Each structure stands twice: as C-alpha cells, then as structure tokens.
Amino acid sequence: MIGFIKALFNKISFARLSDEDLVKKYLSTSKQKYFDLLYQRHSNKVYGKCLSMLNNRTLCKDALQDIFLKILLNISNFNFNSKFSTWIYSITYNHCIDVIRKEGKLISNEKDIEEDHKLITEVDEIEEKMLLQIKVKRLEEILDSIPVSDKAILLLKYQGGMSIKEISDILAKSESAVKMKLKRAKEKCLKKYSELYNNQPI
After folding, report:
1. Could you tell me what percentage of the chain is helix, strand and coil, using 3-state DSSP and rounding each to the nearest 5?
2. Which is nearest to 128 in space by CA: 194, 199, 189?
3. Fewer Cβ atoms within 10 A, N terminus or C terminus of the chain?
4. For position 139, which CATH number holds?
5. What is the pTM (predicted TM-score) of this model?
6. 106-161, pLDDT tens digit by residue?
7. Residue 47 and residue 92 in contact, taking contact as beta carbons nearer than 8 Å
8. pLDDT digits (tens, 9 = 90+) for 84-111
9. Rounded alpha-carbon distances, angstroms, from residue 182 to 53, 118, 136, 167, 186
10. Which range of residues forms the domain containing residue 19?
11. CA dihedral sign, ordered 41, 43, 48, 52
C-alpha cells in the first residue's frame, strides 16, 4: 500500500510540473517520458490549430507528426524567454504557412507594414464588438473566405486568447505591426460579412 501511495504521489507531482520544467528535465536526462508528457499536453491543441488553418484532416495528421518532430529536433534551442506553448505555436504557425504555400492556397499579395512613425496603441472597439457578435457559423464562413494570414492572426487573438506581445513573438514582428495587421484583418472580416450577408442583422 505504501509503495502504491508513493507511486501515485510521484505521478501526481510529475503531472504538475510546468512545461518549462519538463523541457529542462528532458534536456538534462534525455528521458522520453518527459517529452511524452509534453506531447500529451499539447498535441490536441496543435492539431486544432492546424485544422483551423489547413481545413484538411489528412494534411493536419501529417502536419502534427512533422511539427512534433521539429519540436523534438529543436527543443535544445528553446531559450525559455517565452512560454513553451508560445514557442510550440510559433512552430505550428510557420509549418502550416509552409504547407499552405506548397499547396498553392496562400492568398496574400499584401505587404506587412511596419509603422515606424505611428504607433497604434489601441484597436477599433466598435469593429471588435461587431466581430464578436457575429454568429459562429457565419464567422466560420467569413474566416474561410479571407486570406489565411488574416484568419490566422484573428484566431491567435480571439481563439487562442494570446496577447499582442505573444503574437509578436510568434510572427517575429513588432507589436505595432501586429496591431496594424490585426486591425486590417478585422476590417476585412467585417467587409466580407457585409458582402456575404448584405448588412443583415448580426
């Protein structure tokens, strides 16, 4: 009984380790159990992010394997300056963009604009309120009809609940550029809503 209780306690303690602690333990011991727990914690979320960007279950299954292989091969490069989950999402985002490019589905002829002389300190609250009120089915249709880069940043912000700083880290862009890109993505979303639904009530 004592052995069982001790094993159970160790299991509970093991599960309570933070992602960053698991990374440290994996790097110092090379024991697969630490990486396996990281996989268990994040694989469903990574798959969900892939599905939201790729809209193809077969591509998502392949992407999931490729992404975690990249994580495994590059985990020693994780510098602990950001959350491990943010680092994983950065790899996921970039991999999905690569897949979309290879599939020839990336619709983006816009340039990322850096605001060197004008810092955007807040987003348009009216646009944000309208965006959040759009019905789920309509919103899904709208998101599928705008460029994937715009869809991705909206999902990062509103589905992933990420801060401007976290998105900035993922996209490797300045916070002002992220704010501008987010604002423009919302504008496109609302414009597409108007085109599709002819200003019907939200």
Report:
1. 75, 0, 25
2. 189
3. N
4. 1.10.10.10
5. 0.58
6. 444 333 333 333 333 333 444 555 555 555 666 777 888 888 888 888 888 877 77
7. no
8. 988 998 899 889 888 888 876 544 433 3
9. 16, 15, 19, 10, 6
10. 2-103
11. positive
